[in-house]
Each structure stands twice: as C-alpha cells, then as structure tokens.
Amino acid sequence: MSVLIKNGRIVTAESDYFADLYIEGGSIAAIGKNLSYQAAKIIDAQHKLILPGGIDPHVHLDMPFMGTFSSDDYTSGTRAALFGGTTMVIDFVLQTQGDSLMNALKAWQGRSSGKALCDYSYHMAVTDFNENVAKEVVHMIEQEGINSFKTFMAYKGALMIDDGQMVQLMKVVKENGGIVTVHATNGDMIDSLIAKNKSEGKLSPLYHYLSQPEVTEAEASARFTDMLHYTSCPGYIVHMTCEGALNAVRKSTLRNQKLFVETCTQYLTLDASLYEREDGAKWVMSPPLREKKDQEALWSGINQGLVQVVGTDHCPFTWEQKQMGKDDFSKIPNGHPAIEHRMELLFSEGVHKKRISLNKYVELSSTNAAKIFGMYPRKGTISIGADADLVILNPQTKHTISHTRHHMNADYSSYEGFQLTGKVETVLLRGELAIEKDECLIQPGFGQFIKRGKTSLTI
Which of 94, 203, 309, 457 has its CA 20 to 30 A from that of 363? Predict the structure, then answer.
C-alpha cells in the first residue's frame, strides 16, 4: 500500500525538520516539501512528530522461568509493543546447559513463527560454552543472522558461565564480528545473601532488593569491562540500574573500549521504596529497582554518552503467578510488564521534562540499537530506502497509564497512575498501517524475523 504523510515534523537521531513522506513497497520512497504523489492512504501529521519505529532490544516473550512462562507470548507481546510505538523487538534464546544453541533456536522459532505482529530478532544466550558451541557461534553469525550473544554472571546452575568460559566466548565472537552482552551481577555474592536472609526468616519482597546490593552490580560490571579489554571484544551491558555500575563504565572510557550500555524505563522512573508495599512482588525483577540517586546518575549517564539504549526487560507475569513467592521472595517470578509504555514514558519523562533532547530520544529508543545490533540503516532511521517503520506521536496529548487500558497480558501495571504527556497515535510497520485510532490493523504473522549483519561499532 502506498502512503503519503503530510505536514509532519520528522525527527531522527541527527535531524529535525518539517517535510512530507511518501511510502511505497514497504520502504520510504521520497521525503520533501509539498510532495504530490497519489497514494492509497493520506495521513495529515500537522502538529505531530514523525519518528523512526521504536526498537526494544530486551524482551522475554513466552519465556520459561521458575516453573512457569512469561505471560505475554509473541502475539500479545508484539501487539502491545505496536500500540506503544515499538515496531521491532529482540528476544532472548536461552541455551539449556548441556544442549546445543541450534536446539534452543528451534525451540524459540516454534514459539514465534507465524505469531508475531511486529518485526523481531534474537539474542543467543550462551549458558554452556565449549568447542562445539564455539562452532555454533560462528554459524549463528554467518548463517542465522544472529550477532549478539548474551551471558549471565548470575543464576549458577542454570544460566551462569564462569569467567574462563566468558573470555573464550569473547575471543570467538570478536573474531567473527559479533558482540557479547551481559547480565552483570555477582551471582555468588547474591546467592550467599539470599541464603542468609532466608535463614533469618526475612522473606518479604524487600529482601529480594536487599540481597542484590549495588556492589554486586558494580563489581560484575567492572569485571566484565576488564575481560572485554583483555580480549578487545565489543560488549554491551543490559539493564544497568545504578551509579556504581555506571562508574565502572566511566572508567572503561579511559581505555577507549567498544562498550555499550542499556538501561530500562523502570530504572529511570521507579525506585526501591516500592518493595515495602504490600504488593511489592509486582516489582521483583533482577537487577532490582534502586534508589533515587541512581535514577539521577542514569539520566546524567545518558547525556554524557555513557548510556546508549533504553529497553524494557519486558518479562511479565500475572499477579497469580507472582503469588508463587508470597511466602518466599526467592520464589517470585522475576519480571514486569513494560513493552507497551517504553516510548511514551521515555518521551514524557525525558523530552517533556527537558531531561533529554528529541534527537537523543530517537537515539535511545531506536537508532542506537539498530546500529549496535546490525540493522542500520534498514531500521532505526527515516531515510530513502529504509523500512517504513514509523511512529506518529502527538507531543501534547495527556493520558494516564492504567492496566485497564493496556494491551499486555498482565492484570496490573508497574506504572499505574503515571500521568504522561505525549501519545502514540499512528504506527506503520514496513509501510502498512499497524495502529490507527487505538485499533490494531494487522494480524499475527505479519511480523518478520530480521536477519542482522555484523555490529556497528560507531554510534
């Protein structure tokens, strides 16, 4: 379908101007003033922003965890993403220890094939590195279009690899043009603190937070940067939460390392006082929410260029699922619903409150992820030939977040009652109208798996 968008303000990571957009064959075909193309659909975007479709590089859809599954599958999760202006997500394939990467990939393909509404890709989580897995890493990059490899410095016995395996993985990934990402927390220290708190009968959600103090993340982040420096491998720290970890990254800049950092909307807007509420289990996630001073550090880190991406770590569970840990914080499924609110939260809390510029907003929500994970300029920008993944956002519309209106498969919202300024009104995915007038106009299976090229190290 051909589409002509008139009178909008187009904002990318590099530019900000008024122009029309003509879309044909799923791509952006023309940009200019007063375009006169005949189109099947004409959209008037006067007084509105036209932005690149959002890219959330950190989601967990239909993920097995702690004896249950995250409550959003590929259909409900990607539909919710589109309502919030996210047109592309990257999920995590989890290798089972003792099994192959390929078998894990096939399992996730079974969960996603024919079900996604927005476009998607995968990170490959390596939980058991050996010679056979090293060969599979090369295959994933060269044949499957997966260039990012997740590692865990926590969850011993299930997901964690040791530092020796980490270094060997880094060497293989570096040689073949990929990137290593990490959940950077000190698992041994956390396990010890969990055991101590449980032995003392301290079982409420507050002790989930107190079992993962800031030092556990700061130490692991610093150790990860040192291993990256030793191997010269590019790296990416997911869901950074705190000032101590950010300072470890700040030190790494003295060595001119190829290191990128992601934080998430919850760490910019919520704090650990929520764990003292009766329903504190709603915010049990790992790493946990931190203090107000950490929020300020992260916003500063964004403007200092130390934090490049804002994701969600979307891993929702219903309140019934959260009740698995009502008598023991260590049994509460970790995660929260967030995929739908990322773009609007970041706009309202960032741009509207003058913490970040519009161009920085586009960097954080789309462009940098596209560059880091090998999708740019097909994704993450507005340019001739790029996929017509576009968001039309009204910067003046005020609205309130409520679980009664969101589209995620969760019966509560982590951001209940948040009053936002700026609302996504229209979303296009590869030139097709996906969201218009609060309706989803595409069906499961429209979303495509996007093969990714080698990572770009300049953003």
Answer: 94
